[in-house]
């Protein structure tokens, strides 16, 4: 069965069991502080399991894009080396939220695999939780009893597993429970006769692998480590789609299925290195095929490679692929971007974001490849230099610090460094490298540490009602709160039954303000979302959490933010009208101070286009268009209204549509009632953020007014300074011209002065062992002048050494220079010499082997410095 049919077959099967099929959530997660990427199908249902949100449907199934490259699940190191772990993969899953439990979950999994797909039961094994007496959790006899009914001969088929493999936990705290895995043995009959499969389950054998994990959520782990039984029980299952394809297509490796083969053939044809011939190059093929998918899907989800967080993870993955291409397949030119069409062809059917973002994906990958290949080149040169040094000194141990610098600053992978060292008969100081690496990890861990206590539940609640679209204050009740500790500082998180506070999301910053009861007032410094939970952050806990409170937001900040948010929509609309419909939002930030809008566009936005966009936005502002809000519109209907759904954003079935005239957007943010209140819109910058992505920053209302006034004030000041009453530009131009002419005159005079000095100086040259040494102390010569003199002197002869000291405006300057001949024949190094004598003038400096300069605070030391330098030079001539 073809992979695309198999995915449909799974969804169809669970549909027939009354499951609602939901779309894959984005692979990149935006509002969960604990998770950067979706790493399992259940992530998007976290709120339901945590009890923050009621379930919309009791039974759900889907195919979810997952990425396991950071945190709890990190398979990156395996990928490519083995044949069944990917970075990005699809997880097929079915869920029950307080509905069916172990019996149905097990029976249906069995029915699907054996009846629908015809996988022979003698290749299948089930594992169950062995129990944990110290935690008071019994062996999962229930699951075991259902499996016994599935297998016609259950002997040796149901295996017990420990907490490591068979007890699932969402995190340090929260929902958890026993799980039951299905493993499949795809070895040949002959091999299976030799060693029974039951001995190989969970032993890392590449052909006896886990394909499906059924998790039975029945406990909650509390902050003190204890377990409590949950009132309602849930099912959460996940099956590796690529592994399932391998099994049903009768292959031995995920990479031999129709998901990967087209990509691998393309790699082979581009690189001229066939797959399946050499174990080493095969790894490279697999790495590249795998990483291509990760990067493409991530870019489609609007997560571009960058230097921080999720963006950095993606950048490193792409670099890993480039490196394998470079070292193993000899690809010194970008080529991974050329694989995009095949990927889009194989997967675009089910994931249309690949089709619509194809051009962007291609450009981003191409540019990243180019720049990393340059880095690789630079790193290689640096290693070569260091290797030469080592060899000269007859040493063999390459410094771990240097390897770490290569890795950290240049993105140069340490295993590549090691490889090159091995080829040169050298070794890496591994301990030193590890030490540096650990120190860095420790630094970033300390940056991120956040410890949460248990929630203190004050009242029952079905989730928070957001009332901030209409209100800036409201009567609220605290439903729960907890203490958290961020970087050593205690803070409190408060959750209300209803709230006028907008939580940071969709690029809009969170509200601040305060809540107040008869007896106390608590400042709210920020409002954030964790999944869908609206959390108010405060420095203090409530003294009486049961009291009724009045919540009041900072209205001024909210108003300014709303103006910027509406202006962002108008700018988006204007850019699409002026530049074309390829313009799509790729990121935005809306705060009280300003707005930032990132969008896809492949050229610079010209000044004329910017002016045009700014004018268009201001015209809409002046037309004072009234806001129209459509709440709870089905997504398809919203699209018909002209609203654009952004890839990488998570939308429910029903969405909120904000319309200002022709600008229509899906948006949960807060907006002005009519555009007139924005007052004024002013663009302050335009630039590139990545390949094919531009960024515009702008200000509105009073911030725009301030901005314009500041500019005008500067202009006024300038016109005052140049005493121009009319045309300032002409006045400034005149000044620039005059300045240029003056500079030319001065340069000429300096040249003449230097010439005169030179004559005076050349007369004082000293001949030493056949070389000419010039050494002087000058007064009132600028650094530029002494450089100039040195250059002129050096033209007179090819065997010259120069040392000049000069005092100027109470400071000391030194210069040491050699003609090329001397540098080469005598290994004299001006940089080293100047460094060794600049302490005499209480300063420092450096430069090249043929010319170096230093500056210092102690002109009295010049005499001594020059003398020392000359002595050093003489000792080497
Ligand atoms: P394994 O032990 O093989 O790494 P796991 O215990 O990490 O698997 P789960 O977290 O239970 O796997 O995920 C559910 C299913 O997702 C697995 O049964 C497997 O089929 C699939 N899966 C897990 N990790 C990967 C991966 N890196 N690449 C492809 N499929 C995977
Ligand atoms: Mg794993």
Question: Would you write up a description of this structure?
Answer:
The chain has 25 helices and 38 strands. The strands form 9 sheets. Strands 1, 2, 5, 6, 7, 8, 9, 10 and 11 form a 9-stranded mixed beta sheet that branches. Strands 14, 15, 18, 19, 23 and 24 form a 6-stranded antiparallel beta sheet that branches. The protein has a 6-stranded mixed beta sheet with strand order 33-34-35-36-38-37, with helices on both faces. The longest helix has 35 residues, at 358-392. The model has no long low-confidence stretch (mean pLDDT 92). The structure holds adenosine-5'-triphosphate and magnesium ion (MG). Magnesium ion (MG) binds next to loops.
Let me know the average pLDDT. Answer: 92
> Ends: how far apart?
81 Å
Global Rg: 35 Å
Oligomer: single chain
Which ions, cofactors or small ligands are bound in this entry? adenosine-5'-triphosphate, magnesium ion
Structural class: alpha+beta
How is the main sheet built? 9 strands, mixed
Task: Estimate what percentage of residues fall within beta strands.
Answer: 25-35%
- Alpha plus pi helix count: 25
> Using DSSP, what is the number of strands?
38
In the predicted model, the low-confidence regions spanning at least 5 consecutive residues are: none
Percent range for helical residues? Answer: 25-40%
What form results from the Cα inertia axes?
A: globular
